[in-house]
Amino acid sequence: MIEKISRRDFIKTAAITTLAFAATNFFPHDATAAKTCTARTRYGTYNGFVGKRGVKTWLGIPYAKPPVGALRWHAPESLEASDKTFDAKKFGCSPIQDRDPVEPASLLEQSEDCLKLNVFTRGAAKNLPVMVFIPGGGFVSGGSGDPIYNGTNFAAAHDVVLVTINYRLNIFGFMNFASIDSSLGDSGYLGIKDQVAALTWVKENISAFGGDPDNVTVFGESAGSISTILLTVTPAAQGLFGKAIAQSGHAIFCHDPQHSAVLADKFMEVSGCEKMSELMAKPTAELEQLYEKFCAEIPFASDVGFFPTCDGKFLPELPFKALKDGASKGVKLLTGTTADEWRYWSLYYDNIVKQMKNYHSAFNGVLYSEDAQKLEDVYAAWEPNHTELAEPERYFEFANQLDWRVGQELAAEYQSAFDDVYYYLFSQKAAVNDLGSCHAVDLPFVFGNPSPDIEPRPSKKLVKQVQASWAAFAATGDPNNALIPHWTSYTAADRQTMEINAKGWACHKNLNVDNLTTLRGVYEETFLGAVGK
Q1: Rounded-to-integer distance, Cα 140 and Cα 108, Å
Q2: Neighbours of 400 (CB within 10 A)
Q3: Residue 183 near residue 152, CB atoms below 8 Å
Q4: Of 103, 221, 288, 341, which residue is the catalytic one?
Q5: No. of helices (H) and no. of strands (E), the chain
Q6: What distances in angstroms separate CA 60 from CA 55, 64, 310, one per listed residue?
Q7: pLDDT for the residue numbered 11
Q8: Is 225 a catalytic residue?
Q9: Can you give the pLDDT at residue 54?
Q10: Cβ(203)–Cβ(215) below 8 Å
């Protein structure tokens, strides 16, 4: 097993520093001394505050009933209409999760009562574009309270209504207990149902905050990106948004019901319970301990064990195929990856570059089926065209291509047959040594907030360019704006990739076509129905 590294202790200090920054620069004086702003919804009137930069801010607004007690492991239920007035000046609790120094939201107060959202906007304009952000964290960690997702800087710079949300995670939101208790048939994707509930709330109420309910963009990074792509092919989400921004995560990161049921059986063994009624009776703290024990006993469970279950009922059985077949028709898409995704995990694992070849099969999401091609055979076919790279960097690049870039570009290709698509490669390198253009390096530039473990001082110029592009896309479905060179849309006939970097932006044709040509067959054989996942 790859060893967890002591560097996390160092990062913990940095993460706590970030939380201290957030506390001293965002919460206390803004929330208690600032002018109050009010929004009246069908579920109550919410009093927020106007921050230093003139951003009207509402925090911790519930979008569904608390999923506690008898509602644990059940679909989110709509709130009751109310004419009461509520305070909305403090983030809601983070979802239950392992305390992780690299995930600042996990260091905040946690609760099963976590289905809350936050709203940021400037001025008094009406019918503004709405952007709903879904946090990442591998479906096991994260939350909207993470300072990196603070929407103040984005909202201060652009005429949008920015919403950030929480959703249930890990055993509370993505463990498939259906084979243990048939009444819990949707327990393997409750977190996605939470997201649909949040989008429904936005559709019903966002006009009270100045937003246009008919001009909604969903965006997310990592698990938030996977969620975004899944939502585009989910029938229950149709009509709730018309544009999507998917940053580093595509539609193959999911489980079939058989696999996720096996994981649920193992969790029951770890828990010592035979019936769900026994688990239902346990307090939150004990379930959290059981989850930590389960992750300790099951290799890579916290990395790949809690992907959404695609059972063909709520989520398509083969979402990648659904995308190709046009299930997302009518949704404009902006999507891409960073240049060096997997290097982010060096924050967790020692010598990740050297060790990738040894452990790749344990958490590779592409060659998942026992009937799929063998990983070593795919690498053997890819390797001869990449001898310019020495090992272990050669295999590491293969893993980045197979797991991230090729799948994301195929998603772009498939959707381009039905609507406008813009594709990018984020090649800006992290300021922290050896992380390169790692997973999540784009987030400080999207939100304009520092990330101590990746980018503590994001380039102001690049922040302005990225935010202007994301905001333009949210407004019109086209990211072009005065701060960047022309961004040509992506099609199968004209594969244009915008490379994003502080040194300059540039559109490249066929930037990754060799890797796409070599590896696309692996995806299409596995996820288009030739081989069942």
Answers
A1: 15
A2: 23
A3: no
A4: 341
A5: 18, 13
A6: 16, 12, 30
A7: 41
A8: no
A9: 96
A10: no
Give buried/exposed letters for 433-463 (b at 16+ CB in 10 A, else e): eebbbbbbbbbbbbbbbbbbbbbeebbeebb
Query: What is each CA distance from 228 to 166, 276, 350, 367, 442, in whole angstroms?
Result: 14, 30, 31, 22, 17
Catalytic residue (one of 158, 255, 360, 439):
439
As given in the structure block, the two tokens for residue 44 are 């109550």
Instruction: Please state the length of the chain.
Output: 533
- By the 8 A CB rule, do 426 and 441 touch? yes
Instruction: Give the chain's residues under pLDDT 50.
Output: 1-29, 530-533
Token pair listed for 49: 């505050």
Location of structure tokens 């990196």: 148
- Catalytic residue, chosen from 222, 302, 451, 489, is 222
- Give 28's contacts (C-beta < 8 A, 6+ positions apart): none
Clarify whether 341 is annotated catalytic: yes
The CA–CA distances, whole Å, from 370 to 17, 264, 298 equal 45, 20, 19
Q: Which residue has the tokens 């239902």?
A: 280
What pLDDT score was predicted for residue 32?
Answer: 60
Q: Torsion-angle region of residue 509: left (phi > 0), alpha (psi -120 to 50) or beta?
A: beta
Tally the C-alpha atoms within 13 A of residue 268's C-alpha that lie toward its C-beta: 20
| Residue entry with tokens 């202007």 | 468
**CA 280, CA 284: separation in Å to the nearest integer?**
10
Distance CA 442, CA 33 (A): 33
CA 286 to chain centre: 27
489 is catalytic: no
> Residue 161 forms beta bridges with which residues?
130
Q: Which residue has the tokens 């948004």?
A: 241
Q: Are 323 and 254 in contact (CB under 8 A)?
A: no
- pLDDT tens, residue by residue, 384-407: 999 999 999 999 999 999 999 999
Tokens of 286: 């004990």
Return all residues near 380 (Cβ < 8 A) that are at least 6 apart: none
Alpha carbons 40 and 56: distance in angstroms, whole number: 14
Instruction: Determine which helix (DSSP H) or strand (DSSP E) holds 447, and give its type and residue range.
Output: helix 443-447
- Identify the bridge partners of residue 426 per DSSP, sorted by sequence position: 338, 500
Separation CA 367–CA 435 (nearest Å)? 26
For residue 209, what are its two tokens? 């905050």
pTM > 0.85: yes or no: yes
- Measure the CA–CA gap between 442 and 420, rounded to whole angstroms: 22
Residues 6+ apart with CB under 8 A from 188: 174, 175, 176, 177, 178, 255, 257, 260, 308, 309, 311
